[in-house]
Structure formats: C-alpha cells, structure tokens
Write a structure and sequence with these properties.
mainly beta
Length: 170
C-alpha cells in the first residue's frame, strides 16, 4: 500500500541500467538507474542494461499495483456520548477519504473528509474508504456506533438561494 521502492541491477560489469515508468521500452536515452526508484502509482516499470561493447540486454518488466491504505477510526465500534467525534485517517499521503453513515459502501462520489477530519458519532454505521489518483481504492473500514444522551434536534432553514439542514446527530 501507498508505494514501493524498486531496485534494479545488471550482472554485466560496466553496464548502465536504464528504465521507464510509463510502460514504454527503455532506450539509450531513458533514465539512468542510480538507486531505488519510488513508485507511488500503479503501473509498469521496464528496464534494460546497456554496455558500449555488447548488445543491449533483454527487457525486464514488472507491473505494480499500489493500493491506498484503508482508513482507520480513532474510536472502535461501541456506545459513546452524543456528539462524540470519530477521527478518520489513512496512512497514504494525499489520499481522499469518502464515507457513509447509512451502512452503504462508500465510493469516491460520497461525501469526503480530509485526512484526520472527524465525523460526529450517531446511531449509525460509519464506513470509510480512501482513494488517490493512480492507485487502487482502499478497502472499506466499518464500525457501528450508538449514542447515549440527547441528540441535537434536527432543523432546516432556507433563504433566497440556499437551504441548510442540521441532522439529529449534529
């Protein structure tokens, strides 16, 4: 999840390893390998060894699937006081987190949170998944919460060009 460091080597002394990360065939003008290459998106790395006295090596190709880390919750499932926040986070830098509170599987089209934002606990099942462009979406984290005490009274208010609603869970 989140990325991988790819290492390469040639068994031919004096050879230069060149590689691509876009799936194209390496040539003598491709990037020279000098140390581990950090891969943060799913894709194919191709490499060839070039030596001035020999024919270029056969191409080596590896495909990597980078999966966004599954979100975690600051509180385990259980019963908490009304209005208690649950912090939702993922270890994948730059990932977005989608969530639902109705038990449905979250998708990127559901409401989103920034990494480390909170959702207020209600009598609901919180599900969250993380996603980042170029990576496979995470699995879904899930926890059922119930609350003690009084919830906020729901309310609706509107104006000339807007309507706002306050849910019963705050």
């Amino acid at each position: 999840t989140s990325g991988v460091d790819v290492t390469m080597a040639s068994s031919q002394s004096g050879a230069t390893v060149r590689y691509t990360t876009n799936g194209s065939t390496p040539t003598t003008s491709s990037t020279v390998y000098t140390g581990p290459v950090a891969i943060f998106t799913s894709g194919t790395v191709k490499a060839k060894a070039f030596h001035p006295d020999y024919t270029a090596s056969a191409e080596t190709s590896r495909t990597y699937e980078v999966v966004t880390a599954t979100p975690t919750f600051s509180l385990t499932a259980g019963t908490y006081a009304a209005g208690t926040p649950v912090v939702v986070s993922t270890s994948t830098p730059g990932a977005s987190i989608s969530y639902s509170t109705d038990g449905s599987a979250p998708t990127p089209s559901h409401p989103t949170l920034a990494n480390g934002d909170a959702v207020i606990v209600g009598n609901s099942t919180l599900k969250a998944m993380a996603w980042k462009a170029g990576q496979t979406n995470s699995g879904a984290a899930s926890a059922a919460y119930s609350v003690t005490g009084h919830l906020t009274a729901p309310g609706v208010s509107g104006g000339g060009s807007h309507t706002v609603a306050l849910r019963g869970d705050g």
